[in-house]
Amino acid sequence: MDWLRIAAFALLILYHIAMAFSPWDWVIKTNYAFGWLIPPMALLTPWRLPLLFAVSGYASRKLFDRSAGTRDFARSRAVRLLVPLAFGMVALVPLEMWVRVMENGYPHGYLHFWALDYWRAGDFWGREFPSWEHLWFVAYLAAYTLLLAGVLALGGNRAMRAIGAAADWLARGHRLLWVPVLALAAARLALLFVAPERQGLLRDWGGHAQYVPIFLFGFALAGAPRLWPAVARSWKPAAAMAALAGAVIVTVELLWPGTRVPPHDVMALDRAARTAMAWGMILALFHIAETRWNHDHRLRKPLAEAVFPFYIVHHPAIVLIAWYSLPLGLSAPAEFALLLGGTGATCAAAYLIGRRIAWLRPLIGLRLRLAKPARSAREAASASGVA
């Protein structure tokens, strides 16, 4: 699963760089808008975030099993998620929000903005404050993880038995393929014309209806080996389902591009197809990761550790590099190379420097490095060959 997690976050960074070149609206745009990017990006959009929640649920179960109890699990997840979230909201998101208001003519420099204007609520220079920006994923993940920890603390063995019973039921036949798709699609369509599709921890009910069950599936899968044969049975039809759903999604996107709103029946078909594609890709990619990528390498551990710092830093890096390179009038290939290389270098520097500084480690999502216990004089002498 480490390799799948690494690949998913690497793909996310490439996706965000591509957003600067696509015709779709994003934080910042380059001088180019390539229509040919729409089909491949439309095929990535439905499953890239659900996959991250599924992998995060899987990792959460592994961490829970290694914890000293539910309270220890909740405490460790709070430190690993809420501390970098707070740091990002104070030190990283302001950089993006400054660029956002600068695009609309904001006249002041960054220090003035951070000190006086960032800490507001409501509309300001055409932008809504406050904003999670890309850290909404961390906020959602922290909420899901801590709510799960609360349920496990209150329900104890009953909650784990319920998760196990659900896993046993889904493991029979092809239920793992069709039951989640029907349930997730029904939930999404029930909320489609009731709750607006907007990010926000207290308003994104459509998103929560998708992400929470997928997060719980990952959590259950990590503790239920009996689910893996069901994944193996389902991955080929799941991949076929994802391909068929992808064709529907691309067709709708091409016929109603950008901000054009399709008829309600077409929108419902599109959302159902997105759900089907997300679930199909999750099953297919989990099977591939388990059967093809289940091997170690010397780079796996450092890459897996670097994933979270890269995620935290990459978004403001892309935005700032794009903002300051716009006046240069670079060609599209040069602009892409600059964004890819500059973002990679910034993320790598943040990780390589941050991992060596004890107080900075938790701010970028790394574990606190415990001090090694002092050795006794006898042990030191023995190690040095004196005794």
From TrEMBL:
Organism domain of life: Bacteria
Domain Acyltransferase: 1-353
Keywords, in A-Z order: Membrane, Transmembrane, Transmembrane helix
InterPro entries reported for this sequence: Acyl_transf_3_dom, Glucan_succinyl_AcylTrfase
Bilayer-spanning residue ranges: 36-60, 81-99, 135-155, 176-196, 208-227, 239-256, 276-294, 306-324, 336-354
An example molecular function term from Gene Ontology annotations: acyltransferase activity, transferring groups other than amino-acyl groups
PANTHER family to which the protein is assigned, alphabetical: BLR4337 PROTEIN, GLUCANS BIOSYNTHESIS PROTEIN C
Protein name: Acyltransferase 3 domain-containing protein
Native species: Sphingomonas leidyi
